[in-house]
Every structure is written in structure tokens, then in C-alpha cells.
Specification:
alpha+beta, binds zinc ion, 9-stranded mixed sheet, elongated, 495 residues
Length: 495
């Protein structure tokens, strides 16, 4: 596939984003029946006549799901419909045995909202077109092919446990004016949304488990023009990092098509995490293809204004206000705060501070030890196997003098490798700093005796030469000594 360089693409074209995020709600039961929604159960053990679409079964709306939908809509500054209906979206696919999905079409529960995303000191306002309720489909597993897709597979397996799990689909209006920052804005928006949904406590928002899924729409138009170009929809991009990468790739791919005089095809595309490219999926259907019609088996949803106001009172702090608050509380410089936001570490740091660490130490560990491992593994920060509580415990061990910063890195390694709590890793790997003064004194003596020339330098006033002796002592102590104490001992002995 030919692509243009990112710089060339941006010199000629203006990207316009559109993001569709599907959120699985964390209700105990499904959208229209009482089946459990617990993730990871044996296939087809959480099903009934309703979510299998058996003849004669009738759906009933889950009130908790409607409540969550309204709270999401309110948190995104949407208008909440006084009256709305469900619709049938008709299409055949084996993971949806009714041959239609119960969704909302022209009457979404929440519409016309907005939110804000901060990036590198700039604020981008994102318009929200709608947030509507629907049911999830089952899951198909295509076995035997090289790609895991149906094409080339020997056979397919179906699991209907997910069929009927409540979903909210949140659709943005076209996001314009982001220029070269489009990929980062896309990532920042999904990150903000994830944090907001978590604060609302309406979903597990685990991208790798599929409870938060993002489809990224992108089109290009020549710079200086205002008509929207033809868009593609990249499906099910399953990490925050992939959102950014997929948008970036599509910009360079579409730019190459347009620059060669071609036309972008309106289609869905698949994102390939390993190769970092998108490939053509199916040509994109229009709404007419689905033959939407109002669902006759369900009564309309008409939330009273009193209820809506009660729910408004339960909203968490808006993300933008939260950022302002924590950056004041933590006293980070503007640059430090930017790094924290772009690493998606705000919540992790907040939780680490709540567990007793200082803001600066929490920032340091999340942005160095944890971020490095997340990058190496190609995962998001929160998917690294260490909790804010454990990071705070490691910092506490440093402050108590049990370990130093260097040893702390080994503790991170051990905790992330699953060797236990920070204290257990320190014990098992024998990492604690030796406070045995006799052992330290012996090591100091040895370093002094072995390096008479350095000792002479120190005696003649070049105190910085002590660094070499400290290094020698630390080596003898396998790093398990307090460097400041070692320095003190050396200078005492020589002076
Ligand atoms: Zn069911």
C-alpha cells in the first residue's frame, strides 16, 4: 500500500475526525433479559430465550441501563430526550440470532452535547452528536484461518453470552480544526471518555476485553476547502495507542490516494496491530440498508424531568475541571502536567497519591518505570501489572531507606513479573539496603586501601574524586547501600 509521509499529507490535506465509541455497561443483567453479564464465563452459559431470539420471547428494558445512559448523556452535556423509542436494525449475521439488533435510530436517549479535550496546553471542543442505547451481539470465533477472520477459516464457533449485553454508542460530530494533531486528539478524546465513564462507574472500560470499543472515522479535504471528503471507518481499534496509530496511518493512506488523483472509497477498514496498517473491509452501508423501524415489543422510554435532575446530581467532577484541580494540588509545572496527560497517567497518579505517595514521586515512577514497560509491551499504562497502591508501597520503601531508587527499579521488575507485593519482592530478591555499619565500614576500608591515588586527591581538596570510591563501595555492596551514608563514611575516614 502506498502512503504519503505524514508531513506531506498534512501539507496538502486537512483531516476531519469522527469517533464512535461503544461502551458495554456494567449492569448485572442484560439489556432486555435477566441473564448475567459476567465476562469470561463458559461459552453459551449465560443465555435465555430472549437473548437467543427464540420465537415468542419478549424483551423488557433494564432500568439500570437507562439510568446509566442518561448519566452518560448528562456528563457529555447532551439534551436528554423526554420520549424516545427503540428501533430494529435489520441485518443477518450469525452472532445475532434475531436477525435484527435492538438499537435506537432517529430517537436517541441523549443528543446534541459537547465535551472538551486538553492536549499540549490547547483545548479542543468535541461536539457529541448522540449517545444511544442498544444491545451487544454475540461473539464469533473463526477457527483455522491465518488472520482470525472469517475469510479462509475452516469453521466458526459462536458464543451468545455477550448477546444482549447493554451498550451505549457515543458518536461525535465531525471534529475539525485539529490539523496535524488529529491522531493525538483522537487518542486524548477516547482517554478522556474512558476516564469519565470510569468516574461515572457505568462500565469496566477495558479496551482489551472489548468493554470499550472505538471506531475511528476519518476523511481528508484539500487545505482551504470546507466540503467534507469521503470517510472511512476503521473498526474496533482496541487500545488507546492503536487509536492514535490507526488515525495517523489512515491520514497517510488517504493522502496518497487523493494525491494520485484517486478517490477514497467509503468503507469500513480493519486495523492490524502488528503491521500498523488498515485494510479494506466491507463497503459501508447507509442507514436505509438496515430498514430501521420502531421496535413494537418495547414501550417508549420517557424519563421524567425529576429523575433526570436527580441523576444530574450524581455526576462526577467533569474531566477538564478535574485536570485544573489536580494540577493545582500537585504543583506540577505546565510541562510536567502535559507529559502526565499525554501519558494518560492522571488517574494513576491520583490513586498513587491517595495511597500515600508524594505527587512528584508518583509522577516519576509512572512516567519512567511503568511507562517504559508499557511502551516495550505495546500496551496502555493501566494494563501494566502494577497497581497505584503498589507504586506507593515502593516509594514508601525508598523513603524508609529500605531500598534506593536503583533497587526500586528491580522491585518494579519483580512486582510486574508477578513475584508478589513490593515487600515480598524485596525479601525474595534480597534487595534491602544493608544498614550493618560493620559491613559498610569494611567495604569503605577496602575501597580506600585499594585506591591510594584517589585518596591523595581527596586529601588535596578534590572532594568530587570521592565519587569513584563511593562507586567502588556500592559495587562491593551490590548496590544495597545508602550512597549518602557511604560518602559520609569515606570523608570521615580520610578527613
Ligand atoms: Zn437472556
Amino acid at each position: 500500500m502506498t502512503v504519503l509521509s505524514y508531513e506531506e499529507a498534512l501539507a496538502a490535506y486537512d483531516p476531519v475526525l469522527g469517533l464512535e465509541v461503544h461502551v458495554e455497561l456494567n449492569t448485572i443483567s442484560k439489556m432486555f433479559c435477566g441473564c448475567s453479564t459476567t465476562f469470561g464465563a463458559e461459552p453459551n452459559t449465560q443465555v435465555c430465550a430472549v437473548c437467543l431470539g427464540l420465537p415468542g420471547s419478549l424483551p423488557v428494558v433494564n432500568a439500570k441501563a437507562v439510568e446509566s445512559a442518561i448519566r452518560i448523556g448528562l456528563a457529555l452535556n447532551c439534551t436528554i430526550a423526554e420520549w424516545c423509542r427503540f428501533s430494529r436494525k435489520n441485518y443477518f449475521y450469525p452472532d445475532m440470532p434475531k436477525n435484527y439488533q435492538i438499537s435506537q435510530y432517529d430517537e436517541p436517549i441523549a443528543y446534541d452535547g459537547w465535551t472538551e479535550v486538553g492536549l499540549d496546553g490547547q483545548t479542543f471542543r468535541i461536539g457529541i452528536e448522540r449517545a444511544h442505547m442498544e444491545e451487544d451481539t454475540g461473539k464469533s470465533l473463526h477457527v483455522g484461518g491465518a488472520t482470525g477472520r472469517i475469510h479462509g477459516a475452516d469453521y466458526s464457533l459462536l458464543d451468545y453470552n455477550r448477546s444482549g449485553v447493554p451498550l451505549i454508542e457515543i458518536v461525535t460530530k465531525p471534529v475539525e480544526g485539529t490539523g496535524a494533531k488529529a491522531p493525538e486528539v483522537a487518542r486524548a478524546y477516547v482517554t478522556m471518555l474512558r476516564d469519565l465513564l470510569r468516574a461515572l462507574d457505568v462500565s469496566d472500560v477495558r479496551m482489551e476485553q472489548g468493554s470499550l470499543r472505538c471506531d475511528a472515522n476519518l476523511s481528508l479535504r484539500p487545505i482551504g476547502t470546507s466540503t467534507l471528503g469521503t470517510r472511512t471507518e476503521t473498526k474496533n481499534v482496541n487500545s488507546l495507542r492503536s487509536v492514535e496509530r490507526a488515525v495517523r496511518y489512515e491520514i497517510t493512506r488517504q493522502a496518497a490516494v487523493l494525491a494520485a488523483g484517486g478517490r477514497v472509497t467509503q468503507e469500513t477498514r480493519h486495523w492490524h496491530e502488528d503491521s500498523g496498517v488498515t485494510t479494506s473491509g466491507r463497503s459501508k452501508e447507509t442507514a436505509e440498508d438496515y430498514r430501521y423501524f420502531p421496535e413494537p415489543d418495547l414501550v417508549p422510554v420517557a424519563p421524567s424531568r425529576e429523575w433526570v435532575e436527580e441523576l444530574r446530581a450524581t455526576l462526577p467532577e467533569p474531566p477538564a475541571a478535574k485536570l485544573q484541580r489536580v494540577s493545582a494540588e500537585w504543583a506540577f509545572s505546565e510541562l510536567e502536567m502535559r507529559d502526565v496527560v499525554s501519558a494518560g497517567a492522571v488517574n494513576a497518579i491520583e490513586a498513587t497519591v491517595a495511597a500515600g505517595a508524594s505527587p512528584q514521586s508518583a509522577r516519576k515512577w509512572w512516567l519512567t518505570e511503568v511507562a517504559r514497560r508499557a511502551n516495550e509491551a505495546g500496551v496502555d499504562l493501566e494494563d501494566v501489572r502494577i497497581s497505584p497502591q503498589q507504586v506507593a508501597e515502593i516509594q514508601a520503601l525508598v523513603e524508609k531507606g529500605t531500598i534506593n531508587d536503583k533497587l526500586a527499579r528491580q522491585v518494579f521488575e519483580g512486582v510486574i513479573a508477578g513475584e508478589g507485593s513490593p515487600a515480598e519482592v524485596v525479601a525474595a530478591r534480597d534487595l534491602a539496603i544493608v544498614s550493618d555499619e560493620a559491613a559498610l565500614a569494611a567495604a569503605v576500608n577496602e575501597a580506600i586501601n585499594a585506591n591510594p591515588d584517589i585518596v591523595d586527591k581527596i586529601k588535596s581538596g578534590k572532594v568530587q574524586a570521592a565519587g569513584a570510591l563511593i562507586g567502588s563501595v556500592m559495587k562491593q555492596m551490590r548496590g544495597q547501600a545508602d550512597a549518602a551514608r557511604v560518602r559520609e563514611l569515606i570523608l570521615e575516614k580520610i578527613g
